[in-house]
Each structure stands twice: as C-alpha cells, then as structure tokens.
Amino acid sequence: MSTLTAAPESICSPDAEQLISELSAELAALYQVEDGSAGFTPADLDHPRAALVVARIDGIPAGCGALRPLDEHAVEVKRVYTRPVYRRQGVALAIMDELERLAAEFGYRSIRLQTGPLQPEAVALYERSGYYRIPRFHGEWDEVIAFQKDVKVNQAG
Questions:
Q1: What is the DSSP letter of 71?
Q2: Gap between the Cα atoms of 42 and 24, Å rounded
Q3: For the chain, what percent of residues have pLDDT higher than 90?
Q4: Model pTM?
Q5: For residue 79, which of 33, 136, 21, 137 has the smallest C-alpha distance?
C-alpha cells in the first residue's frame, strides 16, 4: 500500500522547482500561451504566512500547491498540480487539505483561488471541497473561474 504525504517544503528545493516547471509547461500547452506561470513567481512565497506544499507518494514527488498572501485576512491558493501518473489517487485533495490547515494556522479568514475553463477537474475538486464561486479578484484574464472558502478557525478550549 502506498503512503501519501503532503507537507510544507522550500520553493527552492529541486523537487518543488521541477513540479512548478512541469505545471507551467502543462498550462502553457493547454491554453496555447507562451508563459504558463499564471503570474506566479517563487518570490510570491517570500513572505511570512506563505507556503509551498509538496505531496509525495512513497517519498516520490507527486504534486504541489502554494499559499500566496493577498492581504491580512485572505490568502490565495496557487500552483496546485498533480503529475499525470499520480492523478485520481487523492494527491490534489491531500495538497488542498494541507494548504487549508496552514491557512488556518497562519490566521487567515478566507482562501481564494482562480482556475481556467479548460480545467474541469480542478473546478470539480474545488466545488467538492466546499469552495464557492466569486467574481475574479486578480489578473486580467477574460475567462477565469474564481472560488473562495472560509477558513475554519481552531479554537482552544
């Protein structure tokens, strides 16, 4: 039986850099654009209360996702990616669960994200995970599907 983990990791690690590169290439091909970064740079995570999560199956990097601060109360999920060979094995869900856990730990009240219309699997994942649609909040792309989820605050008691 395989072991799936998802944990914070440096954006500068070779595995993180490779995953981000693979995602950017996949999005560039999917949307027929030169740059598939969607406006993301590693410097976006060079802030307090930002994080990159890498998911691994039996220690092998399978996917990633990041939290980029928007303001004091809101954070944006960026760069959610699962390598094709690991899709439909719970990798993206594990990444999202860890990103949501970190968002709560960092004290955010809401999590926002945007995806494109050519990514119906992503849309389905976010809707199944309790995200609701909101107007586009960043960027100038015409066709963007934006979501938000309120962060559950853990209260000691």
A1: S
A2: 13
A3: 87
A4: 0.93
A5: 21
Helix (H) or strand (E) holding 97: helix 91-105
Residue that has been written with the tokens 């209360």 in this structure: 49
Residue with tokens 């926002």: 112
Q: In this structure, which amino acid lies at residue 48? A: P
Helix (H, G, I), strand (E, B) or coil at 66: strand
3-class secondary structure, 120: helix
Name the helix (H) or strand (E) containing 4. Answer: strand 4-8
> Taking the alpha carbons of 88, 144, 134, 150 in that order, is the dihedral positive or negative?
positive
Residue matched to tokens 């869900």: 93
SS3 59: coil
pLDDT digits (tens, 9 = 90+) for 69-103: 999 999 999 999 999 999 999 999 999 999 999 99
